[in-house]
Amino acid sequence: MPKRAMGTNTGRSIRRRRNQVIPGFGLSMGVTIFMLSLIVLIPLASVFVVLSGATPQEIWKAITDPQTVSTYKVSFACAGIASVVNVVFGILLAWIITRYKFPLRRVLDGLIELPFALPTAVAGISLTTLYSDKGWIGGFFAKFGVMISYTTIGITIAMIFIGIPFVVRSIQPVLEKLDPQYDEAASVLGASKARIFFKIIFPEITPAALTGFGLAFARAIGEYGSVVFIAGNIPWKTQITPLIIKSKLEQFNYTAATSIALVMIIFAFCVLFGINTLQARINRIAQG
Amino acid sequence: MKKSVNPKRLFAIVLSLVMIAGLFAGCSDKGESAGSAARGSSASGSAAGDAAAGEARPDTIEITNVSYDPTRELYAEYNEVFAAHWLEETGQTVVVTQSHGGSGGQARAVIEGNEADVVTLALEGDVDAIRKEGLIDEGWLSELPNDSSPYTSTIVFLVRADNPKGLQDWDDLVKPGVEVITPDPKTSGGAKWNFLAAWAFSDQNYGGDEEKNTQFVKDLYANVTVLDSGARGSTTTFVENGQGDVLLAWENEAFLAIEEHPGEFEIVTPSLSILAQPSVAVVDENARKHGTEEVSEAYLEFLYTDEAQRIEGKYYYRPSNQEILEEFSDVFNLEIKLVNITDDFGGWDAANEKFFNDGAIFDQIYAREA
After folding, report:
1. In chain A, whose CA is at the least distance from the CA of B366?
2. Taking a contact as any Cβ pair under 8 Å apart, which residues of chain A between 53 and 72 contact chain B?
3. ipTM summary value
């Protein structure tokens, strides 16, 4: 009886795959393109429309202004470091949640999304207060002469905070599907713990970790609300690129603001595209 | 089994049909709403005709006041008082919707379609940016008394209790080791007043030498440890996070900080500061469209009445009416010498050009030394 039930089940699922639930490729593609255009493509294209009235020299001047260039360095370097930290920390966190049963595991699991739900300004202000030299955590580090709030370390911490859910949520499903029998078998065959991790688990989660990295990075360079409070915004030192965009807007200089936005869009796109390509290559290798 | 599949397929088809229908409805909606807008305008046209003929007003009228951050409490009280006054005067209930945020951002919101009937912003320049888009009629600045600014404020120093660094005036702030907190004038309109006040002090004390003035503000901003993007951010940095020795603050913000944290801070009034004039104006284009011109104008005019002036004083704005300002002489330091933007800096356009535009003096004092 169970066998038969299973048989019919798989039979049904195959038939259903052939006989798609959502009818018509043309129709579903049409709806998709329509929604995508309305919500994503047209707003992005408006960047180019705003810029169409500007001369290339104007745009070039806006994006290569030395002070603006210094903000790219801050934004991209901090976002890079934050995303690397997020990947390491995110793998660990996803591992704990999927592989161990402990009290409040579900609570921890739920807490991971909190950085998404929290208004960014709230996150920014509370992080700044905690990590300033008068705050709980910052006060401790200040004894050793390490300042966190109002430095690039603070910016990085805010970016870690907002990026962590991306990494955990990318890796978690892969780890859940990964059968613990693999590492048990490896350990029976005498592989060391490090070897098991690097040869069995790590290759499995690499594509997911890369996705997480890319998403966290893209979010971190664009983040304004939470970072701006902890940054201190001192020119040449702790100004982030979105702040420069804001300051151009404040002067009603839409051309400069949009030009810099374009740089960020292109950069984020390149990073995400690069990661996708890398992933495709890894998948091809993995599938032989 | 086929029968069990069919309802699902049917459901899927119906669902997608509904979506398509929705899309078409969405498209045709535009046409329809355009039509109804046209109808609406003809309706309001006839309403205007009625009003002209002296007919009764509608029972309730709604207006939107787009303002900046620190006026929240002020307008919460003022709106009630005004509504009572308007009801008595005309028998009409007025509902005022408030919106608060950074002054420059609020101005952009109105330009980009926030249907404000009146704006009450921190800077004349922000209101004027709306005028440049054609939403406010020319000459708004002289439509109401005192350059359309019913209340004023100034820039003062907020220092920690007992003033441990003994900061009394602007020249104390450039001394080595003094940490100053002020927002960035490039992102915060209100912070421009802070910069200009410091400039004016130097200008009057060091013989009007531009180079000396530039050096003075350069030394001042070299002491700035956190340059927040907005005034509220700076207040949080200084008050909650314990950064810095002195906060350059709007007088009304400084009083609020003291009220919330009694005994922790003191206000120091420097020998010279700047008259900060927040500007108010009717957004004529929107008010005409909504048929709210009359109530909008009355709303702003009422800000100059004795009753409203006292409310403004209560929330630590300096009333523009000198007699009522005198009533608050125990609150405000009225001895302070105040420069103003029109006479001392040639107006906002000139000030922006000279100090705050890209590559102007503010950028120069932060320019990297090659």
Report:
1. A235
2. 65-67
3. 0.75
